[in-house]
Every structure is written in structure tokens, then in C-alpha cells.
Predict the structure.
Amino acid sequence: MKVEKMEVDMCKTIEVAVVEDGKSSESRVAAAGVVETDKDGEEHYVPPLNFAMVDNGVFRSGFPDTANFTFLKTLGLRSILYLCPEPYPESNTEFLKSNGITLFQFGIEGNKEPFVNIPEDTIRDALKVVLDVRNHPLLIHCKRGKHRTGCLVGCFRKLQRWCLSSVFDEYQRFAAAKARVTDQRFMELFDVSAVKHISMPFSCSKGLIGSLVNDFITVERKCEC
């Protein structure tokens, strides 16, 4: 008996944990990557800027600072996917070597100009790294964890059959007032057919992701009008 599967676009939402530049001194310290201590002098784990869990075994953030290394160790990372063209800093490279973490670099220039194209082939190759469970746990990051990382995660969500409104909502939670129409247009037009054949071993459970992320950090948001 032949069973045909009906493909249905699904709208999904996800709770994200964003560590952004805020008005309070506590949030500014965290965003700067400084290790915080409580009144007893005990150190707290400090995640990188804009850190969040994307799915099981996949995380996203801004550029990790040396003060974030202790936190990153708790993730048991196997790989880091770096989306900037600049060389990786020596201190970060040493951290990768000492913890057996593989670096995948896909250099994408910051797309601030309205007519500068995001390289679709590069995003497609990066997605193949994300989809390969042998690279998990994996951290995706660029400089601020907003635009390049947001585009890659948005294309990943299209593979998970998220509707565009949910893809854009997640992107805007990180980009906030600096959201770019060009980024959203790229995600809308991105053709997932070239990587659609790769298996998707992800649960994307909102409850699971939200609970795990909240164990790491406290969400603090700043509303910008």
C-alpha cells in the first residue's frame, strides 16, 4: 500500500533568549562579556551576546569573548560555524584546539548596502554543515548574531517548513531596530530545494528549547520604538 504524505506549511514560534545591550549596568556587563559574580564571590556563566538555542544540538550567538569560554564549555560543542570573512582570533582558536572543537568558516561580508547580494551558495553550504548531526553540538555566530546568523537560521527554518511570518518574527527578535529588508527578502526568495533532500533530525519542540535556554540565562529585552 502506498502512503502519500501531505506537506503542509506550518507556522511555528520559538522562545528565544537574547542578551542585548541594555540600559541597566547588569545587562551592559553581560553584553560586554565580563564574568559576573554574586555577593558570595561565586562566578556566573556568561553567554555570548544574543545567545539562544536554535534546535537540539544547534545554538546561535554573537562573537564569543574570552569571558564566554567557560559558558561555552557547558554546551559540549563539537563545532563552531563562523560567518565572517575576518581571521579567527588567536585566543578563540586556542580555545577550539584545547576543547577539540572544529571550526567551519564561511566568510560573508556584512550586508549594509541595499544592492549587495548575500551569497546564496555560501548559505547553502553552511546549511549542509548545520544539518550534519556529526557536527553537533554546533554554535553558529557572526559578529553580533543578528544579520548573517539571522539569515542562515531563517533559511534553516524554511527547511523546517516554518511560514515566513514566523521566520521574520524570529529574525526581528534579534535584529530589532536594525532589521534589514534585504535580509528578509533574501530569506523569502532562498531556494531550499538544493538541500531539501538532507534528513532533518530535529524536534524543534518549543517547550524543550525554552526550558533549556532559560536554564542558561535570564532573558532581558529592550523595546525600541
In short: The beta strands are 52-55, 58-61, 79-82, 102-105, 138-141. The longest strand covers residues 52-55.
